[in-house]
Amino acid sequence: MDRKTIRLLSLVSVLFITLAATACEDCEDCNCDDEEGGSTTTAKGGKGGKSGGTGGTSETSETGGTGEKGGTGEKGGAGGTSVSTVKVTFTGVLIDAVTPTTKVGGIKVKAVDNKTGDDLGVSDTTAADGTFTLAKIPAKTFGVVAIGKEISDTEKRVDSYTYNLTADVDGYPVYSLTQSISALVENTIKVKYDPDTTSITSGVYWINSKTQARTPVGCATVTFTNPDTGDDSEGDVYYIANNRLPNADQTQKQTNLTTGGVSFLNAKAGIVKVTAYVGDKELGTQTLPVKANKDGEGEIKNAAGELEPRTTHYGRVYVVADEDPTPKDCTQE
Question: Which of the chain's ends, N or C, has fewer CB atoms near its CB within 10 Å?
Fold first, then answer.
């Protein structure tokens, strides 16, 4: 083969390579690998600038590597890999906080952020049997608020938050408290309504790991603290007596076998960590974002016809174990 022929073939080869590279740059859906592993175009990636955008088409060097800088181009789009958001569906039932056999219908319920209490944009209205469904909640663990409502002259319900819920169990109970019980608690401990405070109802319950049955844990103590500092949160601890009301004189210092309950009253808004113990042994914790009465959404009026929004919060500590953690020598209080 003479020199002219060789030179002509070389020019044709260079022209072919140039045309192929140009075509690849203009193609957004092409896989443009050269023999030594050049850059690959992501189907949905943005097109890179001169220095090769992330997920876009970058110019390749003679050895088939990335462009000269290989970083994000001047206007390079993000890479083609998308991050999916968790979406879960929760099916619950709204029950009265004092008489659990009473199902509450006609109440708007909303999913809220488990750490902030903020609205997650998912809501429903409870059916006559208290059931509801919250679809496409963008979180694995969340809270539900039952918005306060005047159902009748004799039944007024306050904003009631239930936290640390998951979509694992259908028909999970969410609580709703009446204004009359909220006022009765205030009368029991002899305090007046305060728009700047709120209440937390907690308790300690054993879930039998074999049967899933729930039983109150007796002789447990519960603390309410600031999760950042470890200091006691501002408020007053009242253990629940047999009549299911707070022990007004605070002589009861631990949960009883009947209710396993405790109230944290006159609580300030903020984040509260609830921790349960038997003796020195920690049984579990719940962290709750709590909102002041004045931040309640329900338009509830008092006896004088004045708006008096109220909030309350439920954050019980559940202990899943084969055996009841209640001490063997625990007596009824």
Answer: N
Pair 256, 333: CB distance under 8 Å: yes
Instruction: Convert the pLDDT of each residue in 71-89 to its tens digit.
Output: 444 444 444 444 447 799 9
- Give the pLDDT confidence score for residue 212 in this predicted structure: 87
| Element containing residue 308 per DSSP (H, E) | none
Report the sign of the C-alpha dihedral through residues 213, 222, 275, 91, in that order.
Answer: positive
C-alpha dihedral, 53 to 56 to 59 to 61, nearest 10°: 90
Residue 24 has pLDDT above 50, yes or no: no
Encoded amino acid at 232, one letter: D
Higher pLDDT, 28 or 227: 227
Phi, psi of 263 (to 5 degrees): -115, 145
Question: Residue 63: which region, alpha, beta or left (left: phi > 0; alpha: psi -120 to 50)?
Answer: alpha
**Cβ neighbours of residue 77 closer than 8 Å, sequence gap 6 or more:** 45, 46, 47, 48, 53, 54, 55, 56
CATH superfamily of 178-333: Immunoglobulins (2.60.40.10)
Per-residue pLDDT tens over the stretch 152-169: 888 999 999 999 899 887
**3-state secondary structure at position 102:** coil
Going by C-alpha positions, the residue among 308, 31, 321 that lies closest to residue 148 is: 308
What is the reported pTM?
A: 0.72
Digit-coded pLDDT (tens) for 220-233:
999 999 999 999 99
When mean pLDDT is compared across 20-24, 190-194, 212-216, 241-245, the lowest value belongs to: 20-24
Q: Which two tokens stand for residue 283?
A: 């049984």
Which superfamily does 89-175 belong to? Answer: Immunoglobulins (2.60.40.10)
Return d(Cα 305, Cα 234) in angstroms, integer. 30
Q: Where does CATH 2.60.40.10 sit in the chain?
A: 89-175, 178-333
Average pLDDT estimate for 317-331: 93
What tokens were used for 183?
A: 């006022």
**3-class secondary structure, 33:** coil
Q: Which helix (H) or strand (E) holds 36?
A: none
